[in-house]
Amino acid sequence: MKVALVTGGGRGIGRAIARDLAADHRVAITWRTSRPNEAAEAITSIRADLADPQTCRSVVDRVIREFGRLDVIVNNAGLVKPTPKDDFDVVTARAVLDVNLLAPGAMLAAALPHLERGASIVNISSVNAVLPPRDASIYGASKAALNLWTRAMAKELGARGIRVNAVAPGAINIPEEPRPTELTRLFEQDTALGRIGAPEDVAQAVRFLASDQAGFITGEVLTVSGGYRL
Ligand code: NAP
Questions:
Q1: How far apart, in whole angstroms, are the C-alpha atoms of residue 156 and residue 196?
Q2: Residue 191: inside a domain
Q3: Is residue 77 part of a domain?
Q4: Deepest in the core among 40, 75, 195, 225, taking most CB within 10 A?
């Protein structure tokens, strides 16, 4: 059975991705503050602060020790923080870049010696990579950079048969922190399909891109937004 590693799998979108993949993969997740129930979720969980690149290496080492292989990496962990232009805090901005952009880089570097032909990386981006979020420009920039990095890695790893893609969610309501009704309504008005997304909507797209069914797809960013701001 293939082995998948999902970062930030203790809650929200990452949890839905991990649950979905667990149907036909052996799954390891990382968590930092949201401790999962391993037995209930049928996963292995690894506590890790991914802002530290050394931690990414120990996460991969643990997966290899436990499962002997690694086939799918879903870089889902992400940090959204306000970085307003008139009160710019470089420490906060760096933290956003560390988790959203540099951790996937460190994770891939650690995993590369173990990845074989057919391996698949899926990065969780955002529609905010192309639609700038108000007062969170560094978050948007981190996701735009993640999209470019996705394409760059697809190009560099194609010859090794490793695919690298991204999924860019629109507004997704996570059970741990649902958006206020008024905000949800605003998103719905701006969305062609007239509803806000569920974590499972994202998980389905990840499942496809991670699978052999997407064997000739690499370097793509698949938007999962219900047609947000079309
Ligand atoms: P969330 O519940 O806030 O999830 C964030 C995840 O990232 C958590 O699992 C968290 O782990 C992990 N994380 C944050 N900082 C970390 C660090 N330093 N080290 C390790 N893990 C860290 O939000 P979500 O909505 O599920 O977001 C998941 C991904 O989807 C993110 O990349 C986000 O940018 C993207 N996204 C979400 C939406 C949306 O509308 N929800 C839209 C577009 C894109 P702990 O909780 O264990 O600390």
A1: 35
A2: yes
A3: yes
A4: 75
